[in-house]
Design goal:
By secondary structure, this protein is α+β, with helices and mostly antiparallel strands. The protein has a 5-stranded antiparallel β-sheet. The protein has a 4-stranded mixed β-sheet with strand order 1-2-5-3. It has a 4-stranded antiparallel β-sheet with strand order 13-19-18-17, covered by helices on one side. A hairpin with a 6-residue loop joins strand 18 and strand 19. The two termini are 25 Å apart.
């Protein structure tokens, strides 16, 4: 188990921001996580649990303890009627898991290809892309209670998953160390290609009914065309959540902006792409201080070089102000700002 003081969190945030924590602990087994829960004291608090930091913005040094899981490993627990349960260590790289699943003929995660981060974060953030969310695949989450040092198994139905939300982000924040996530995958491949420009990209490649490997590659190529590489230009992917409005507000907006893209939800509400709102306000490609908005994807804020967390927050607030002034919509950051 790694245990260091005054640790620089630069390797643990994809924004490329240098900020130190008072103590950094990395555990490699569930037993180590249980031991941690029973030995941490009030002097170690506050606590911050991180993964790869692909959804994290550090605005200052963290005067507490950062906990990170390095638990790895993939295990097939069983198979029933074409459904396969796979138990995965929370420290596994997410996209590596998706690649492994495709190679093993285990389907359902293809549309989530190339999402940065680690497996544990998928259960916290309910990651999603191209019409698929992690909660559709999660069977249960194994974790250690920091209050009791007890290993628990939490059914997905108890996690209250929603759009980029879970109880781990709300009332359970800071209460658990996730050790493993169990996913329910499928032997039958049912491609989901009606979201975004997946179908048109397949048609351009003269692919009618894709195989799993082909769909995964298309998703990867689309994401690489749209999103910057954090190793080149620091970022945390989509910075804002797509806002959801009621039908009355949507109808009024559509009357003023007939070309506004939108997605009708089953409950009568409507989701509007945050990237479109930001682009309409003229922020796409612009820079404020040492932070900016990516030139190909307005939903992504980037570190132009030497940006601090405060620089990114200033840009975030400027964008939120302009979108609110023009559309009456309050954008909510998806990124965890610390």
């Amino acid at each position: 188990m790694k245990d260091e003081r005054n640790y620089d969190l630069l390797p643990h945030n994809t924004f490329g921001i240098s900020a130190c924590c008072r103590r950094f602990i990395e555990f490699t087994t569930a037993d180590e996580a249980r031991h941690l829960a029973t030995t941490l004291t009030d002097a170690d608090r506050p606590l911050l649990v991180v993964g790869a930091g692909s959804n994290l913005l550090l605005t200052t040094d963290f005067q507490g303890t950062v906990l990170h899981s390095a638990i790895v490993g993939k295990e097939i627990l069983g198979e029933t009627d074409g459904e396969v349960l796979v138990r995965v260590g929370s420290g596994e790289e997410w996209d590596g898991l998706v690649a492994w699943c495709v190679a093993q003929g285990l389907h359902g995660a293809e549309n989530l290809s190339l999402i940065p981060g680690e497996v544990g974060a998928s259960a916290v953030q309910n990651i999603g892309a191209y019409g698929v969310e992690a909660c559709e695949l999660i069977d249960r989450v194994e974790a250690v209670s920091l209050d009791e040092g007890r290993l628990v198994s939490i059914p997905a139905s108890d996690c209250h998953y929603g759009y980029r939300q879970s109880r781990f982000k709300q009332e359970w924040k800071g209460r658990f160390l996730i050790t493993h996530v169990v996913y329910r995958l499928h032997r039958t491949f049912t491609p989901r290609i009606d979201y975004g420009n997946i179908r048109s990209e397949l048609q351009a490649r003269h692919i009618g009914q894709p195989m799993a490997e082909q769909l995964r590659q298309v998703i990867i190529d689309i994401r690489r065309q749209k999103l910057p590489d954090p190793a080149v230009e620091g970022n945390a992917g989509s910075f804002f959540m797509n806002p959801v409005v009621d039908r009355g507000q949507f109808d009024a907006l559509l009357k003023a902006y007939p070309q506004m893209p939108h997605y009708l939800l089953g409950d009568g509400r409507v989701k509007i792409p945050a990237a479109w709102l930001i682009d309409q306000c003229g922020w796409k490609g612009r820079t404020l201080g040492r932070a900016g908005v990516h030139s190909r994807q307005a939903l992504v804020l980037v570190n132009r070089g030497g940006a601090t967390g405060a620089d990114v927050v200033a840009l975030c607030e400027a964008i939120r102000h302009d979108v609110s002034e023009r559309f009456g919509i309050d954008l909510t950051p998806e990124v965890n700002i610390v």
